[in-house]
Write a structure and sequence with these properties.
single chain, alpha/beta, Aminopeptidase, 2 domains, eight-stranded mixed beta sheet, 39% helix
Amino acid sequence: MNRDSKKELWQVIISAFLCAALFMADAFALPRVLSVNITESGGTALKETEKEIEKKAEDTASEDSEKAEKAVETAGSDVKLGEIQNKFITPYTANTSYNNVYLKNSTELKVNLKELLEENINFKIEKNGDPQVLIVHTHATESFMTEDRDYYTASDKSRSTDNSRNMVAVGKVLADKLNKAGIVTIQSETQHDYPDYNYSYYNSEKTVKEYIEKYPSIKIVLDMHRDAIGASPDKVKITTKVGGKSAAQVMLVMGSQSGGRTDYPNYRENLKLAVRLQQTLEIMHPGLARAINFGSFEYNQSLHPGSMLIEMGTDANTLEEVKYSAELVGDALISLCNALS
């Protein structure tokens, strides 16, 4: 191939490349390359043009990616992820009931509520003296909605290490109410589920043992949690009206020595206390308490014969609703403790 033929061939190649480059520039909104020095050393000019286009394309893609991430991040806190349904869960369809006590029995054990209510509680509550009640939170970081809405977003977290927003804040309402009534109450603010959720009950077991060893006067150990109800992506808040205000429903969760479990022989002592509290709640605030959830589990309740686990609302309830329920539970617990004085 002679010199002129080579030059013509380079011009054809470069012209074809420029057409493609102009098309890409339009597609990617890139500035067009206005001119290229077509010479025998056109290969060098071609490579420099390719690098320029590639760099501009990379810069544009990077900027677009950053803008997209910022847009998603900004919108993420407000974008609706699912609905929040407001429900009342009736306790009155429980498979076991007697005299304002409603219990859902999922064990093979026969539960005689009349006998449990008539049996003596093996302790007395003393006022204005040594600690009588211990409040712990195995899952302290369980949290709630901060405002009342019919939907939730990414900013509505179900867990928080901020003790002004989680179960610790709810427990404080109850502890303050009991203390004001002369029932000396200690609240552990330890976050047993953080940073490792899997060790929650192991951690709270150590806390309970330490407190009852230090304060043998403790009669009642209350582990306060919250529930979570719903099928993804929606959530359910559970409420009832008390005194014209919206209150989160609560539920006592009580274990037993059943279903092959052999580490909870004193479960009846705890169950006797729980059915009395549930009866008191129903009499004072009908519908506030769901049916007692009675099953084949232990949840550290074998550590003390006055142990109860109570769930306060769900992650779709507002913190205000759950704090109000803590006050109402406090009313019932004060009444029960007065009866046990």
